[in-house]
Amino acid sequence: FDFMGRRLNLLDTPGHNDFSEDTYRTLSAADCAVMLIDSVKDYAIFTVAPDGLVASWNAGAQRVFGYTEAEIVGQPVDALFTPEDRERGVPQQERETARLEGRAEDERWYVRKDGTTIWVQNSVSLTHDDAGQPLHLVKLIHNISERKVAERRQRLGCRMEVEPDGNVSACDPSHSVASDVRCARPTAGCHCHRGH
User: CA-CA distance, 175 to 161, in Å (whole number)?
Assistant: First the structure.
């Protein structure tokens, strides 16, 4: 079933020819949902338990953040937030907003396994059991770092050059977006000087 409650014809889905027609007929809606979530690669989709620990992790989350499922499940979701956001209690505020309002959305910096930061669109929804009791939070995250860097470049009126130490010190018209992502988040050593 899709999100509108319509039955999915999984036999026509590319890459899902490993199962017989009888297998598809016996899949529950939950099985279909798991298959759907696991097939999403461009978005991090994962659940967070009420205690703030990561409860599930899709392949897209591994691609976005660099952690395998085995490395992150059972760990505090707070590890994905910047140190500044952790100090300000942002992870707890996000969970509380989602608990009270059913949803929380924002754009903010997150930290990948390798320590680099990425700018993401973040949507958090509270799930409920059949009796209406709150369960896990579902986080849907899209890495939009390239857009953030392009906006910063436009605002600064230059192309930034990232030096080996991570500082942005000059403008280079041939510079690529990918290396700007590392220093797109304003930090003490991140500067851009207008080119001539």
Answer: 6
What would the two tokens of residue 49 be?
């338990």
Backbone Cα Rg of the chain: 20
Q: Which residue has the tokens 């009791």?
A: 133
8 A C-beta contact, residue 84 and residue 176: no
In which residue are the tokens 């470049």 written?
Answer: 153
CA distances (Å), 163 to each of 6, 115, 159, 174, in order? 52, 17, 13, 14
Beta carbons of 159 and 195 less than 8 angstroms apart? yes
Q: Which residue has the tokens 């309002």?
A: 101
Both structure tokens of 14: 């590319």
Global pTM reads 0.64
What are the pLDDT digits (tens) for 150-192?
Answer: 888 787 776 555 455 444 444 444 444 444 444 445 544 444 4
Residue in 105, 50, 112 with CA at minimum distance from that of residue 80: 112
CA distances 168 to 130, 142, 190, 193, Å, are 52, 25, 5, 8
The amino acid occupying position 80 is L
